[in-house]
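pasting for the record
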Amino acid sequence: MTHAFPFAALMAATLAGAAGAQTAPADPAGTAPALSTIIGDLEERGYDVADIDVGGRVIEVEAMSPQGLLVDLRIEAATGTVLSEMPED
């Protein structure tokens, strides 16, 4: 099941530890980067994150690109690698 979270609410839940307490970890070995790290990396690259969908192996992010375009990013949850960037419909 995929859940859509506004960025501020997701970060608050992550910091409070509530998100991890609700579901079993997707990365039992603990090798995947934290969601806050992935978002921080995007922000360092100039993206302004608006919405996040966490759905298993792929994280979908709606963001304003450094060029000022609204884009959808697909990110591999295990590595934090951006798999694709497409203009928002």
